[in-house]
Amino acid sequence: MITARLDAVSEIALSMGSYKGSQSIVEIEGGDSDATIMQPELSCLLSSVLTFLGRSPDIQRGITRIFHRTATPSEFIAVIQAILSAGKQLKRLHINEEYEDYGCNKIGVAIVQSALLRRLILTASSSKVLGNAVKLLSTLNKEAADKGDFTDLIIISKDQFPEVARARKALQLAKEKLDNLIGLYRKQFRNHKLEFTCVSGTTHLVELSIDAKVPSNWVKVSSTKKTIRYHPPEVLTALDQLRLANEELTIICRAAWGSFLMEFGEYYMDFQAAVQALATLDCLHSLAILSKNKNYVRPIFMEDNRPVQIQIHAGRHPVLETILQDNFVPNDTILHADQEYCQIVTGPNMGGKSCYIRQVALIAMMAQVGSFVPAESATLPVLDAIYSRMGASDSIQQGRSTFLEELSEASQILHNCTANSLVIIDELGRGTSTHDGVAIAYATLHYLLEQKKCMVLFVTHYPKIADIKAEFPGSVEAYHVSYLTSNNDEGTIDSKSDHEITYLYKLVPGVSARSFGFKVALLAQLPSLCINKAMIMATRLEMIESSRARKKTGEKQLQETPSSDQELETQAIVLKSTASFHGERTEDSEEFVSAVRDLLSKLKSATTDDDYAKSLKLLKEAQGIANELIN
């Protein structure tokens, strides 16, 4: 089915540029040389049909309302008329049922190559559907439908709706009786111009001069200076009969309309198939326009007996590409069941990690539905599913936290994915503590690699996750989205250099050591004091982690943060002894030791003080002392 859709999209796209004109001429073989059949170009005809349907009511919704007997008469006519008009236009392709398998018209000329397109066109322009549409429309009065008049809605044919015919005849007799009465009054009052009048909503009044003599049982309704208006008792009786006939006709006509809609159920399946065919043609035509306008390529699907692999060259995100126009940076994706089938993606915040894995999933999804894809080339397997664990949300109604929702989605993936699945996971484990998050993320990825062996794109801010490569050599590779900074020293805490980062959005091998969260904090316009405090806190945590690491490895460096005044004094003595050993004067060595002691003291205070402003001031003072010592 995927290949059939791709063939259909390809044929429509090719037909868009295949002819300069909107029609091609096919000679009739064995006939008069002057006789020709004007064959409309496929894309031009489809565009005409779909443009017409775009201006029509929603036929999919309308056909459902008709089936459930909730459609109005005007809606019924509009929907059936739209299906009829679309089918008649598609009939111009001259594809006949007996030539369906060959895609030929009645003279044996190939018109549409795609078997799927032929089947859809034949279904939408079926003679049975068009014949039933004409029959249904011939039963209804369009003018009455537009007015919402049920009494004149049904057009009666032979042996159809006899009860409506009787009710209309009864109404006609009531009207004729009133006409006969006005004729009698003309003779009685010798006024051949006498007519019933209507005043203030009161109908069938007999208006006579003020000096006219009338029977005593006539009811006076209103008068002027010159005339008096009456309701004769015979007229009142006839009016009662007219009203009763009108009410009966309305009830019977509404019942007939309901019966008419119920009878439509016999044709519903054929009409529904035609509507579905038109909807599918609309989708295929849209995909063809997209592929031609956006320079998409036809994906190649692998045979089932070959190892699962995804090879996308210069893939692009279909939505972002449209928004960014020519500024989108494409990326390659290579996954192979027998080689590298997992990519761990790291990188700075807003660097394009989530965009990249969404891009791969969207390309795979578009290919599966039969669309061309945004890439220079794409080779894909037929996937049984695409699983996604992205974003963060809770469920207050069910008492489920964000982290529980996150792990529940991960659990569904672990239970349901197979070796023919594509799994994309974005920052699993961020809803809990760092150690727990790293452990859960690591274990989840380990399970996917060891038990499921499916294609995995795993985005994380935990560099430790990349250590899993050692357990699955050749099957896992770490990548990061590249960037440039204004300062090569990525360990600096200077806010300016930390914020000056240029995203390159290109996926390259390796693990990114930093996430540049302060860049996002600046973009979010957090208060500067808040950002400064965060940077000081981050520096403290980095120094603590660094100190722990050095202690574990037995390193003893001068820059290690002193833990007590006694350590400060011990280091000062060592420095003094070192200075004397090198032949320096005692006075100079004492001054040097004092400066170092001051430097270490300020560093210690800066990393332990809770006042961020004071800590920042101490760090700047320590930096000044260090510069003097170096000089």
Automatic annotation (TrEMBL):
UniProt cross-references to SUPFAM superfamilies, sorted A to Z: DNA repair protein MutS, domain III, P-loop containing nucleoside triphosphate hydrolases
Family: Belongs to the DNA mismatch repair MutS family. MSH3 subfamily.
InterPro entries xrefs: DNA_mismatch_repair_MutS/MSH, DNA_mismatch_repair_MutS_C, DNA_mismatch_repair_MutS_core, DNA_mismatch_repair_MutS_sf, MutS, P-loop_NTPase
Gene3D superfamilies membership: 1.10.1420.10, P-loop containing nucleotide triphosphate hydrolases
Domain of life assignment: Eukaryota
Protein name: DNA mismatch repair proteins mutS family domain-containing protein
Family annotation (PROSITE patterns): DNA_MISMATCH_REPAIR_2
Domain DNA mismatch repair proteins mutS family: 421-437
SMART domains: MUTSac, MUTSd
Keyword Nucleotide-binding: yes
An example molecular function term from Gene Ontology annotations: ATP binding
Any one biological process term the GO annotation gives: mismatch repair
GO CC aspect terms: nucleus
Keywords: ATP-binding, DNA damage, DNA repair, DNA-binding, Nucleotide-binding
Region (Disordered): 548-567
Compositional bias segments (type: Basic and acidic residues): 548-558
